[in-house]
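Risk register update: the risk of archive-format incompatibility is retired. Evidence:
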Amino acid sequence: MPLFDAHCHLQASAFAADREGVFARARQAGVEAFVVCSTEPGDWDDVEALARTQPGVIPAFGVHPWYLPEGQTSSNWLGPLEERLQAWPHAWVGEIGLDRTAGPDLVLQEAAFEPQLALAGRLGRVCTLHCRRTWDRLNWYLARRKHREVPVVLHSFSASWPVADELLHLNAWFSFSGALTRTRNLRLPEVFKALPRDRVLLETDSPDLLPQALWRADPQRANESAYITEVLEVAASLWGVDRDEAAQQFWTNSRAICKGFLDQVTHGAYTG
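Archived output:
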């Protein structure tokens, strides 16, 4: 059964020495499609290059709250972002978001986040969202956006059930990473089980968020898309189903959020 890595950074320098191996191991593990997320204008070309050369790559272009270009406002990069998205009709917007634990002042983050969210809605593009301790502000923006028919994906979701329940009504989907495998996190498995099964996705966030068993074996190892199988095993166990049944559900969900494009991109490199 094919797998979909809904959020990864395979353009990262951590993979420079063996990027082809990373893709080969992922495909051997059954991963047929990847949303490769940029973090800043400086890596948009790298993400685009992977989408042109690696079958199954769906690019995501955006500006992460940690990497806002110093001394610039969205007026400097929002136009080029829209041009990039227009050139790639099925690209996602991301990784974008809000974060009270790191990055510049929240006022600056919101000034960059709001126009990117609006652009995604206007173009009908899925957003992959980063959120840490800013659920109040994120929900405020999601509740007031003009194009609520366009889904957003909460990347590496780890918030409480009340937060998830509110987001469900704002056309949010929930992507689960290696954090789901960490046994000290008692709340997250319960949230995962409570969510509708047709609104969840799997991701690795490679090269970060290594699944627990692999981290215990080698904490310095970079996470890879191939390791999504570790998250799948935990998800299947929480649902009380076998791995293949869980994989089928996740692939069905992935096809739904990609609106049929997933079937095309897995048969060749995405050329825009």
